[in-house]
Amino acid sequence: MKVPFLNLKKINEKHKDELCKAFNQVLESGWYIMGERLKAFEQEFSSYCGVKHTIGVANGLDALILIIRAYKELGILREGDEIVVPANTYIASILSISENGLRPVLVEPDPQTFNLDSKKITKVITNKTKAILLVHLYGQMCEMEAIKKIADDYGLLLIEDCAQSQGAVWSGTRSGNWGNAAGFSFYPGKNLGALGDAGAITTNDDRLSEVVRALRNYGSEIKYYNMYKGVNSRLDELQAALLLVKLKHLDAENAIRRSIASKYISDIIHPNITLPTVIQEEAHVWHLFVVQVENRDKFQRHLSELGVQTVIHYPIAPHKQKAYKEFNHLEFPITQKIHNTVISLPVDITMSDEDINYIIDACNSYNETI
Ligand SMILES: *Cc1c(COP(=O)(O)O)cnc(C)c1O
After folding, report:
1. Considering the entire predicted model, what is its pTM?
2. Ligand 1 atom closest to the CA of 164, numbered from 1
3. d(C-alpha 289, C-alpha 260), whole Å
4. pLDDT tens per residue, range 352-367
């Protein structure tokens, strides 16, 4: 038996008729950039998240970069300012800060949830700290009340990286609606995935929304009148049309992810496999199901021999990457331990019960000593 980590073809084929219809509408409209489909997606996504504004952009990294860039244009952030960010995240979160000439200040996560630890944030705040960029890693939201309180108490901007948390709800409020602004990715493998690159910014701030809207389109709101030295980071009509189809199914697909995760949690019983910790059911959308195993490579080989494909998210912490030489000397033991022990099991929504049980049995048959 073979269980792939993620079968994107099968996932999208579930909606083949609807996706083909959406594709044909765009084809026949003859309008491919900044049109009705984008406007419709921005409206739908705003009402889904409960926010005032959604601004579609080219990808998730651009979403984060443009939020910070817009705050610079508004005079709220300046080059050299510090932004607190979790040390264990996908590198994009940190790149968005350094790309803008600001300083990422890395903090250790909570070893149980892998997420930003509010108790550790206040320790790194200086008079240069201007924002917290939090990441809802693996699809689980951070403990939002505590972090929001710190942002409020210290007068910091709160920016959410929601690239892995589309649809997650913490204490009744969706991810993307907790801070001053949020960046989303709709990379094909995310919970809400396009059929190519795509991203969005959500915010309740009218001024920020206006600036981001201009920045993504050459810094221009009125064609050929440029307010800012902007970029080209637009979400095209085709991806917007396909995302409108996929958004309708997001809650149902997240429910399938939850049922797969709860089966893993109840049935994987093994002294060497540490299962993930869930804080609030609705606040986890299981973008990834990440377990920790001390002898990870051996465990991965065992599963691979049984045909179960796994992936490591992520093998090297950002501060140990060649790209961040200036951070290479730093030591974050919790983060490094996470990077050395995590391994992601498949959470493909097209898996059968048989597939899921097969993966569970494969995990439970792991023998660390042979
Ligand atoms: C995927 C991802 C991004 C970047 O999104 P892209 O669309 O690939 O640019 C940013 N942050 C996190 C946490 C991600 O997982």
Report:
1. 0.98
2. 15
3. 9
4. 999 999 999 999 999 9
